[in-house]
Amino acid sequence: MFLSSVRLADAIRKREDRRPLYRRIFTNQRLDIAHKVTVRTIFGVILFTTSYCIVNALIYYKYVRPIRQEAKEELEKELIEADRAGFLKIKLMNFMVTASNFRIFGLGIMGGAGFTLFKIYFSVNGANYYSVYKKNQLKKELDNYETHLMELDQILRTGKPATIG
Question: Where in the cell does this protein reside (predicted)?
């Protein structure tokens, strides 16, 4: 009964409504429904995220923070006991390791500066790193310029740009 001849005739008959298609699809009722769904979704997301943040904050302050505070106090007690039992030796060794890290950092900076100076001043038959780099860059720039000139020549000859491919 869904595809009856009466319905088919109604579908074929010219529509009397002169409104554009988007006006027929997006009626005020449908726009109101879409707006209501959107606003409710936004409010739902806001309520969910707010409740999530509040619950996490409460859990943190009620359970996690006291446990961390207790662990911190325990660590402080252990450090005080370790200080009585020769903590100064450990502290001195830690300082030596830290000083060693600073020496390694300084050596890294000096090595990088030395490598850069080597690239600048070391040359074989008059060619160093930067002169070769400039030469290669000049070749690339000249190739790009030549390609550009060829495209302009093509545009002048035919009146339209060349197609690639």
Answer: Membrane
pLDDT band at 124 (very low <50, low <70, confident <90, very high): confident
Angstrom CA distances, 10 to 19, 111, 112, 133, 137, stand at 18, 87, 84, 77, 73
Running DSSP on this structure, what letter comes out for residue 125?
T
SS3 149: helix
Nearest to 151 by CA among 138, 137, 163: 163
Helix (H/G/I), strand (E/B), else coil: 128? coil
pLDDT score of 165 more than 50: no
Q: What's the CA angle centered on 17, arms 15 and 18, to 5 degrees?
A: 110
Alpha helices in 13-128 (DSSP H): 21-25, 28-59, 65-84, 87-121
Rounded Cα–Cα distance for residues 16 and 148 (Å): 58
Using alpha carbons only, what angle is made at residue 125 by residues 123 and 128, rounded to the nearest 5 degrees?
Answer: 30
Tokens of 27: 């009626």
11-58 tens-digit pLDDT = 666 667 666 666 777 778 888 888 899 999 999 999 999 998 899 888
pTM of the predicted model over 0.90? no
Task: Tell me how far apart the terminal alpha carbons of the chain are, to the nearest angstrom.
Answer: 56
